[in-house]
Amino acid sequence: MNTATEPAPAILSAPPPGDDAAWAARLAARDAAALREMIARHGAALHRVAYRMTGDAHEAEDIVQEAMLRLWDHAPAIAAKHPVGSQAAARLMLGGWLQRVATNLAIDRLRRARRLSGGEVPEEEDGAPLADEVIEAGERDNLARALVLALPERQRAAIVLTYYEELPNAEAAEAMDMNIKAFESLLHRARTALRQALTAQGDAP
Amino acid sequence: MSVNEQPSGGTGPIAPGSPLARVLDGYGAPDLPAGFADRVLAAAEARRPESLAPLPELRRPARTRRWRIGQRIAIGVASFGALATAAAATGLLEQLAIPVPSAKTVWASLTGSAPAAAAPEPVVAAAGPAPAPTPAPVTIEGPIDTPEELQETFRRVDQVRAGRREERRTIIDQRIKSEIERRRAAGLPVPTPEEEARLRAKIEQAVTAREQRADAAAAARRETLQRKVENGEALTREDVTGRKPVSPEARERFRGLRDLPPGERAKAWRDLTPEERRLIAEELRARRAARLPGQPAPAPAPVPPQDTPPPSE
After folding, report:
1. B289 vs B141, which has greater pLDDT?
2. Can you give the pLDDT at residue B114?
3. Which residues of B touch A37 (CB under 8 A)?
4. B45 CB contacts (<8 Å, ≥6 apart)?
5. For residue range A31-70, what is the model confidence (pLDDT) as tens digits?
6. How much is the ipTM here?
7. For all residues of chain A together, what is the average pLDDT?
8. Region A148-177: what's the mean pLDDT?
9. A168 touching B, CB under 8 A?
């Protein structure tokens, strides 16, 4: 769910059919104005996702920039696959494509950071009071941030996409390259972990 | 309805206004800094296509499902063929009584041009050298009325039978060798060492099976004889051998006829009186009936009733 200071996620509004194919064609033609338009349309949503995934504003900017540059690099291939006016063009969703790239980049960076730090982030839910540990570390801004950042990266992505970005399960699953059943199972585990963490704080959900 | 759209519950979606939702809503995200788009555009302008790293090679070449299935089938057929060839080469199929025709036989059956004469028939009709002398037959002096005498009789019978079996194998070996020599001298195809080994194994298998049947029949007959001796009965030679002794005169006549060449044998047979021919024929039939189990003896020459062939079989 978006905070009051944030604009509504424009990335979620369905663009007119074929519109993204036209934008892809302009990007393929190396139209800088088209890239600027893409940043204006999708940058904020990607930044929110990246920030809530990483908890670091600079890291989130890097992720958004990398996602946009990948769109710039792959625009010729995307445009070739989705020529304007074709049926494939009607199915092209640059916002979903960017969302998938940004989510994967965030997960990759989190995993890389975990490997470098040697820390262990359990993929499966465990009974430990997750929030206690991170709060006592004194490195979290508030309880919500601590709860979200204490989740394993994929559970964290599921919560960010469905709760904060209000994506339907199908679109969130597509952004994470998962089938819908597996994603719903992941989302179920993420919610359970959040509730248990909050219960451990002494406040029933 | 997906999980996200399920009504609020313990494991369902996070309901707006719930304590967890109020906590989560406190996790705000900052806006993108001013000038972010310019930085991205500058970075995009700096990226040249030639500076991009090429995509890595696929780990495995993309293959269609049809080709994958075909590949598996081909591997399976090749594996089966290799195993079958190995089994045929090592003679395993022969041990399992699975006939393995040679390539020559298969080609002859396909073309119908040449007879499949790779494997020679057992040389039963081949003229071989004179057989080795048969060991002396068992002689029984007087009636056999004690178990010791019966066991001694069995021992002597077994001794004679073992000698006959060895003699039969020697004859078979000589006939095989002579037939191969005859075919080689006549320019006919001769079996390879592998084919000869298979032929010998097949003959040995048949001989062994015949001996096992004879042993089983002899064992059953010996049980009957032992019970009779234990009951106080005295056994005669006919009881042990299962047939009447051949008279010395008849034996001489048989031997004389047997040793004649075929043409003279027929002439000598015609020179006999009808009475002599009838007596010889009856004796031959009685001997043949006594040797063949399950066949009734001819009426003119009654044979002692028996359920099993004589031990000499």
Report:
1. B289
2. 52
3. none
4. A32
5. 889 999 999 999 999 999 999 999 888 999 999 999 999 9
6. 0.74
7. 80
8. 90
9. yes
pTM for the model stands at 0.44
Task: Please state the length of chain B.
Answer: 313
Q: How distant is the Cα of A175 from the closest Cα of chain B, in angstroms?
A: 16
Best of B1, B23, B25 to disrupt the A interface (most A CBs within 10 Å) is B23
**CA-nearest residue of chain B to A32?**
B41
Which pLDDT tens digit goes with each residue over A76-87? Answer: 988 888 888 888
Residues A204, B19: C-beta atoms closer than 8 Å: yes
Cβ contact, residue pair B28, A3, below 8 Å: yes
Flag whether residue B9 sits within 8 Å of chain A, measured between CB atoms: no
